[in-house]
Amino acid sequence: MLSIQKAEGVPMRINSLFRFSFYRRIQISFLCFILLPTVVASFLNYSITHNNVKEKIFLSNQTVLTVIAKDISKTIDDMTYASNFFVQDENVKKQLRNFMAMKRIESFHDFETYLQIKDFFSLVDVKTMNPDILMYVSNQAGFIVQSSEIQGADPEMTRQQYEIVKSRVDQSKPNILQWLGTVPTQGTNALSNKAYLLARVIKSPSDTQQLGTLFISIPERYFMKAFTQLNTSKLALFDAEGKLIAGDPIVSYGMDATAKNSIRNESLIQYSGWKLISETPDAQVTGQITKTFFITLLLIIPFFLIFFVVSMYVAKRLHRPIRQLQAGVKQFGNGNRRIRFEQDGKDEISDLGRTLNIMLEQINQLIVENEQEQEQKRELELQALYSQIRPHFLMNTLNSIKCNLALDNEMVHSQKINSLMSLLRAYMKFNEPSSLGNECKLLFHYVDIMQMRSDLVVQLDIELPPLLANLGFPKLLLQPIVENAFVHGFKKAVDQPRIVIRAKQNDHRVEISISDNGLGVSAEKIDLLNAELQSSQDTEAWQTDKRVGLWNVFQRLKMTYGSASTMICSQSELGGLTVTLGFKEKLPTGGSKC
Question: Where along the sequence do coiled-coil regions lie (predicted)?
């Protein structure tokens, strides 16, 4: 038995549990959901069958599509052969020279030329062996000689096609096959709604005179006959620019929402850049499989609901002791630190109760220790507050001296004490946040003190964009660099000593440069100094070096803005040394002047 003791020590009994282990009861609850794995297995079986059927249909369609593409490629190859025959055969060129000026058949010689060209078409027809394809040649006068009077291709239809596409022919590109696109077929005997046309300009190689233009018309019915090999899918043929040549206009050239719900196959046509695409709707392929699956699922749902109700009842019985454990833990969290769990059983919940008792003892011990630490911390804070009386005493004394000097009209010394007080306040509040603008103001006070100590008149110029004035910046970070300028740069007499501080922003990167016109440093020493700053030299080695100030500045910069921060030394354009600090920081939208 498991019980919870109240604050007064009275046990709070939990309902009796089953005599067998909690782990066994969980196994029984899982057995109630034996139907769930069945449903999951059905889903997996359906998914696998669905994908396998789609894959087989895809491979089958791709095979047929490849055959159709090869047939169309062979037809295009035959058209290329026919055009080459008219371009390369000397007898053809001879007759075309006689034909190029004909406007109509006006003599027996013209009639012989007309028949000879028709004979040439007959030779080409033997090669192509395709009765649906129409070829005709025209001259500059618009006179046309047609290959044959194929079904549905009367001279009037041929004339209409010629008038539509003659402007599409590029006469400056002879001896290459040009793709002219589709044109509507409006003849009285036309069996197709449109045709796709190709053209080849024929010119004399000797004098580049245009002999004529060969046109090849492929009617839509030719493609539709080829598409009957795959009548279970929607097929469409597109040219290289994605325009429909023949087929179902529902099929899209690119992938869209309709194509995603279909089995899509594509095949390229050689020599032309055309693309043959087929789409088979998923419902047409897997509709019966999906229907059978959902009928089975509807039969399983009632049994699933029954098992679900039973499992809810069992789970409630199993979860009751766990809820009681949760209630005891909440009481402990609300301040009842004497609550404990009584362990009577040998199952997993009893083991959990023993573990919780140990944890509660440890928590009580931690609470006691924490209360002791808080008491010690309050005592230390009182001591720290007492220790601050002396710095405040010093500041108040300096302020009194400053006021007395001002009353005696000693404004120079009064200003020096004011600068000193500003520095002392910064040192006393070193860890408090500051801004770049306040740091610049503090530098003016520091330079004022250093001028008095070194008996130098140093000009301090600060160029700070308003946007950067409110930038969060570590206090006294720039002071060691300015101090180096006084100690090292101006240790010998310098004409009009000057220190220039510039800050600029490039995207989210800020760069601050401190330059002086002091004695400067040689290029070799600058390279050595930059190398040491970028190396992994430890702090103790820098403590023995005179450049420990730069090292400390660099370390504070990286701790504040990250390891990507940089410090680079270079020769100043003023004649001395320039130290450039770079770091990344998100800047505010506004600022104030320094």
Answer: 356-383
CB 231 within 8 A of CB 267: no
Three-state DSSP state, 277: strand
Distance CA 477, CA 443 (A): 10
235 membership: H or E segment, kind and range: strand 234-238
CA distance 351 to 353: 5
Of 96, 82, 206, 199, which Cα lies nearest the Cα of 143?
96
Strands 234-238 and 244-247: antiparallel
Mean pLDDT of 157-177: 84
Could you identify the residue written with the tokens 């059983």? 345
Closest to 482 in 3D by CA, of 462, 459, 504, 499 = 499
Query: Which amino acid makes up residue 91?
Result: N
pLDDT of residue 422: 67
CA–CA dist 256, 20 (Å, integer): 60
Cβ pair 136, 158 in contact under 8 A:
yes
pLDDT of amino acid 523: 87
Per-residue pLDDT tens over the stretch 497-513: 999 999 998 888 999 99
What count of other Cβ atoms lies within 10 Å of the Cβ of residue 567? 21
What are the two backbone dihedrals, phi and then psi, of residue 202, each rounded to the nearest 5 degrees? -110, 120
Higher pLDDT, residue 336 or 559: 559
Q: Indicate the residue type of 286.
A: T
Average pLDDT over residues 266-275: 84
Strand order in the sheet with 341-343: 11-13, 2-5, 341-343
| pTM, entire model | 0.45
Mean pLDDT over the full length of the chain:
76
pLDDT digits (tens, 9 = 90+) for 242-254: 888 888 888 888 8
3-state DSSP of 374-389: HHHHHHHHHHHHHHCH
C-alpha distances in Å from residue 96, one per residue of 93, 201, 261: 5, 12, 54
**Residue 528: other Cβ atoms inside 10 A:** 13
Eight-state DSSP code of residue 486: I
The percent of residues above 70 in pLDDT, for the chain, comes to 74
Q: Are 151 and 191 in contact (CB under 8 A)?
A: yes
Beta strands in 220-353 (DSSP E): 234-238, 244-247, 262-268, 275-281, 341-343
Distance of alpha carbon 318 from alpha carbon 332, whole angstroms = 23
Give me the amino acid identity at 138: S
β pairing state of 144-146 and 434-435: unpaired
> Given its phi and psi angles, is residue 455 left (phi above 0), alpha (psi -120 to 50 degrees) or beta?
left
Predicted pLDDT of residue 474: 87
Confidence band (pLDDT; 50, 70, 90) for 582?
very high
Rounded CA separation 506/24 (Å)? 67
**What is the reported pLDDT for 516?**
92
Q: What is the pLDDT of residue 155?
A: 79
